[in-house]
Each structure stands twice: as structure tokens, then as C-alpha cells.
From TrEMBL:
GO BP of this protein: proteolysis
Gene Ontology CC terms, in alphabetical order: extracellular space
Name of protein: DUF2817 domain-containing protein
Biased composition, class Polar residues, residue ranges: 37-48
Signal sequence region: 1-25
Pfam families: Peptidase_M14 (PF00246)
Length: 424
């Protein structure tokens, strides 16, 4: 069947050993470029100049690839968006790679994936790219990657800035999500293991924010449980739910250390903005004592690549369903009904004080308030209306739930205190 064949084709196209030269390379001029990581068999990570040379080579060689500069970091490094696809499509998958600069395996997996999709000659994979646009931010934190730090050059954790948008990096990503409307947002990270209780090769987690549309939430959990984890397990990697310690004997959860529902994390913001989101985390530490660094580095990257196969299979097999679900979620805000949650998560019911049960129809901003937050509202894609009384930010819009998270006094990460308006 078509879906099964597409899944098989994508697995074949992306399953070649990490360091192998693709079989279709016919001549020196047709030989795909290799990252610095690949050239050194995982002894070191790809440098920024190597990344730029690598991407330029892929761009020159493939008419499926285009590269856009979407921003500039404080240290003047480029923030780039790679588009892989042959024409406009109804479906878009966005990969955000290594928001934390000291978590490089996702970046390496993204770079080699761009190359493999650009050079593939597999018929079904090319058909897949006619229906699905793949967008990639190869290095979401170039300054942090250069310094091998979690935060950017100001020490800010970019993955805690997807609501306030104070960093150049988060602002660039917000503009991509606003302008490209990705149906799937896939966020690649790494984590530090805790022996026995928290030590899988790969963890993942879907949006837990309670403002995520129920059908979008369902698709995100399906992406995890039915596609990403099975693909990784087939490749020999262990998997689990990010942020949950489990008993090594019974497998029962014993402690939650991460994965809350607050909206400033990209995984949760993707759900608020009606994308099927998934966080993926590969284990940094070696699995056994005495493992040499290049071997461990290759495991980290290859585990990410195995999970990406599951993502592409999901996009191929369930693409029609995803298209319908994200479109319906984006339209639902115009009905302007239902509560908005300023706290809680899908595994942690909101307290009464964390629910705006009967939201106002909008929030009014003074001229000074609007001047202070207008750039962030625009980057998010929030619509506003100007009238004689100032600026009204209505809830009747696609990003309905985001408006109170930005402007209501109950919201813990709000930009400002807007004045609730019940007579819009």
C-alpha cells in the first residue's frame, strides 16, 4: 500500500550508516558533502564554518533546497532556515535543532538529514517531498554551540523564551512559525541521565499545555508512541517519556522532574499555536563504562536519526489527518468559546485559579503598553485592532488562547497586564 511503501522508502533513504557514502554518488561532482562530524568519524562536532560550507554545497547541488537567513545572533552569526521540497505543499514539517548549544547531536542529525533528502533518488521519497515541505533550522543557537553552552551569548535559555521573545533566536523561530504555519514542530535536544531511574537512549514528550487542541494533542502523542518510539526501538534504542523517572523493576512512574505545561517552552508553544509538537532528547552519557567518545557521539547522533525516520513515516502515513486536524484547530479560535488555562498540564489538572473560565472578548492596551509589546504580538502573529480607545487585542482569532497568556494578569509569563474588555 502507498503509506506502507512510503514508510519503507523513507526508512531506506535515511537508514544508511551515518558515515557511509550514499550509493547513488556517481562521480566526484555528484558526491554528497559530509559534515565535519562525519569526516572525523564522530571524534568532534561540526564547526560553524564547516556547517556553512556544507549547507552551501548542498544548496548548489540540489534544486530541492533553498536557504534563507532568518536572523542574526548577538555575536553576528547567521540564523538560517533550510527548505527542502520541490514546490508549495499543503503540509509542512519544521525541525528545530539544538536550541541548547551544548546539545549538539540534534544539529548533526539535522545536517545529514538535509543532505540525504536533497540528494535522494528514491522515487517515493521524491513523491513525499512533493506533498510535504521539510523546513530545518540546523543550528537554533549558533553562539551557544560555538561556546558549548546551554544558553545563548547572553546566557539566556532560548527554550524558555518562546512567549516573551526577548532573544534574537526565539524571535527568528517565532517568525518562521507565524509565516510558514508548520503542521509538525519537532524539537531536538539531549539530556543527562540518572542511573536506573532515567537512563533511556531517547526520551520524547508532546505538548502538555492544556490550551492545545484535543485532536492536535492526540496526533502529537500518536507521533511519539506509534512512530518515533517504534522506529528508535527497531534500531535498537530504548525509549521513554521525558521528565518521568520510572521504577527500574516495575516501570511505574516515581517522580516527575520535567515536562510541565507552561507555555514558554517550544514544545508547549507549538501546541498553543496548533502544530503537532514533539520534543526529542538523546542521552549524552555513554551507555557503558570505557566507551570511547567517538563511539558514544555516533550513538547520540544515530539515535536521533532513527527517531527522525519515525517522524517522516508519520508525516507520510498520517499527513492527511494532520492537515485536517491543524486546519480545524486554527479555525476554532474564531468561535471564541471555552476556557483558557494559565496553568496545569495534560497530566496535572489545572487548579481553579489557573482557569479563566469565561474569558473576556479582548484586552485593551494603552498606547504605552502597545508600543512596548507590539513587536512581540506581531512576531507571534496575534491580530490587533486600533480604535478611539487605544488598541484592542481580540480573542476572536486563530491564536485565541495565546492572547490571555500574553496579556492577562493571571498568566505567569505575561508580557503586560491588559485591561479585560467584555464589550467588544
Amino acid at each position: 500500500m502507498i503509506a506502507a511503501a512510503l514508510s519503507t522508502a523513507l526508512t531506506t533513504a535515511l537508514a544508511a550508516p551515518l558515515l557511509a557514502t550514499p550509493a547513488h554518488a556517481a562521480s566526484a561532482t555528484d558526491t554528497p558533502p559530509r559534515t565535519g562530524f562525519e569526516q572525523t568519524s564522530g571524534a568532534r562536532w561540526t564547526t560553524q564554518p564547516e556547517e556553512q560550507e556544507f549547507l552551501a554545497a548542498v544548496d548548489r547541488a540540489s534544486d530541492r533546497v533553498s536557504i534563507t537567513r532568518i536572523g542574526t545572533t548577538k555575536q553576528d552569526r547567521p540564523l538560517q532556515l533550510v527548505r527542502v521540497g520541490t514546490r508549495p505543499t499543503t503540509r509542512t514539517v519544521l525541525l528545530i535543532c539544538s536550541q541548547h548549544g551544548d546539545e549538539p547531536s540534534g544539529r548533526e542529525a539535522c545536517l545529514s538529514t538535509v543532505r540525504d533528502l536533497a540528494y535522494t533518488k528514491d522515487k517515493r521519497t521524491k513523491e513525499f517531498l512533493k506533498r510535504t515541505t521539510v523546513l530545518v533550522v540546523p543550528t537554533a543557537n549558533p553562539d551557544g554551540r560555538a561556546a558549548d553552552t546551554r544558553g545563548n551569548s547572553d546566557g539566556i535559555d532560548i527554550n524558555r523564551d518562546h512567549l516573551s521573545l526577548r532573544t534574537a533566536e526565539a524571535r527568528a523561530m517565532a517568525a518562521v512559525i507565524r509565516d510558514r504555519g508548520p503542521d509538525v514542530v519537532y524539537d531536538l535536544h539531549e539530556y543527562g541521565a540518572t542511573p536506573q531511574y532515567y537512563d533511556k537512549d531517547l526520551f520524547d514528550l508532546w505538548p502538555r499545555n492544556l490550551n492545545t487542541d484535543a485532536s492536535v494533542h492526540e496526533e502529537a502523542e500518536t507521533l511519539s508512541r506509534a512512530y518515533v518510539r517504534p522506529a528508535a526501538q527497531t534500531a535498537g534504542y530504548t525509549t521513554g517519556t521525558y521528565g518521568i523517572w520510572t521504577d527500574p523493576v516495575t516501570g511505574d512512574p516515581v517522580k516527575q522532574v520535567a515536562g510541565d505545561g507552561q507555555e514558554r517552552i517550544l514544545r508547549n508553544m507549538s501546541g498553543v499555536k496548533h502544530s503537532v509538537g514533539l520534543l526529542i532528547e538523546s542521552r549524552v552519557e555513554p551507555l557503558t563504562d570505557g566507551t570511547v567518545e567517538p563511539v558514544n557521539n555516533r550513538r547520540r547522533v544515530n539515535s536521533q536519526l532513527s527517531a527522525l525516520k519515525g517522524l517522516f513515516s508519520f508525516a507520510g502515513e498520517r499527513g492527511g489527518r494532520v492537515d485536517a486536524v491543524t486546519a480545524a484547530a486554527r479555525a476554532a479560535g474564531y468561535r471564541d468559546t471555552g476556557p483558557v488555562y494559565v496553568g496545569g498540564a495534560d497530566n496535572d489538572p489545572a487548579e481553579p485559579a489557573e482557569v479563566i473560565q469565561d474569558p473576556p472578548c479582548g484586552y485593551r492596551l494603552t498606547d504605552a503598553q502597545y508600543t512596548d509589546v507590539r513587536d512581540e504580538l506581531a512576531l507571534h502573529g496575534v491580530r490587533v485592532r486600533h480604535d478611539g480607545d487605544g488598541t484592542l487585542v481580540p480573542l476572536r482569532q486563530s491564536l485565541r488562547a495565546l492572547v490571555p497568556l500574553l496579556l492577562d494578569e493571571k498568566a505567569p509569563y505575561r508580557l503586560t497586564n491588559g485591561e479585560p474588555d467584555t464589550d467588544c
